[in-house]
Amino acid sequence: MFYDWGNSAYSIIITTAIFPIFFKSVATDAGIEANMSTAYLGYTVAIATFILAMIGPILGTIADYRGLKKKFFFAFFFIGSASTVSLAFVPEGSWLPLLIIYVITSIGFHGANIFYDAFLVDVTSEEKMNEVSARGFGLGYIGSVIPFVISIAIIILSEKGVIPLPMAIATKLAFVITGIWWFTFTIPMLRNVVQVYAIEREPNIIAGSFRRLGNTFKEIRKHRTVFIFLLAYFFYIDGVGTIISMSTAYGSDLGIGATDLLIVLLVTQIVAAPFSIIYGKLAHKFSIKAMLYVGIIVYIAICIYAFFLSTTLDFWILAMLVATSQGGIQALSRSYFAQLVPKEKSNEFFGFYHIFGKFASVMGPLLVGVTAQMTGSSAYGVFSLVILFIIGGLLLRMVPKPESQLV
């Protein structure tokens, strides 16, 4: 749970909030137009997630071999936390090195999460697995807010001249805080968590891993309902993830100040937690599928509304709309999938669930980047995401309710 507490700082500070704002300001100072810097950031996110999508499946299967899970976890965690700190030491005005190091931080963060998620079966019983996982998720929200608030405070005090630090240095301190926070709260996991369940090593673990992946893929193809849902998930979760990763860059393009953006994102984190719970309760009343449609419709409205954004108030309204559905659509997608798959093979099938999520993270940022570059407007880039939600919603209609589907 403390790893959730520690690494969630990366999600809000590096992926969503402070780094994108900092990059946009560096790019602007270097003479790059706003829509082009948004495009470059979109391309970078796409490159990072594509690399992860390519290596993720094999890493996930390697994690099952005895004695390797913790070694790979440590390697990716260390790469991620160390490279996050190194963002602070990029020379002033160097926007391209910032993006290159960002790719490395992303690979470290998401790569470590593959092995971290796999450790869940080792640390608790099946009866308590949901409870332990949910507590970790909850602690992650809290753990991300604390260093975020500290970082915002330093940046605002610097901006107002209360502390004698240039804004650039104050912002870079946020990267150092993130890396140290992440590293510190990973220590309990490194010291106390051990791999309990494992597959005995084969003579060639790489070939064995690919063979196991092939077998799982053949199983998925036999279950048409599962496969169609994964396709639907591929499209709409791509839109969700893109909005999360590109929101601050878009807000910056609209001329919204860095301080306002940071405060909006902080409130969004706080509001998202209870709404995730509300989505869960409403799913029991109206069905999971109905609430997934609600989430998709809300996100279509977000994309349309974003096209007409012009003021800070508009961005606040947009952020609160995102907060209402961000956690809910992700949480319900996971539980819906769990009801569709064969229960005795849920671990194998969830491996492909994560693979589809990783591949999905490539298309959205790429779509935003290309559209923004071609049209000269970031607004058209965000609006283009409507296509992903519409396709995802239409495919979801083809998936029977879990209760009526024998898999």
UniProtKB/TrEMBL annotation:
Family annotation (Pfam families): ATG22
- Note the CDD domains from the entry: MFS_YxiO_like (cd17482)
Q: Please give the InterPro entries that the UniProt record associates with this protein.
A: Atg22-like (IPR024671), ATG22/LtaA_families (IPR050495), MFS_dom (IPR020846), MFS_trans_sf (IPR036259)
Instruction: Please state every residue range assigned to the domain named Major facilitator superfamily (MFS) profile.
Output: 1-405
Where does this protein reside within or beyond the cell?
Cell membrane
Q: Which SUPFAM superfamilies match?
A: MFS general substrate transporter
Q: What is this protein called?
A: MFS transporter
Gene source species: Sporosarcina saromensis
What lineage does UniProt assign to this protein's organism? Bacteria, Bacillati, Bacillota, Bacilli, Bacillales
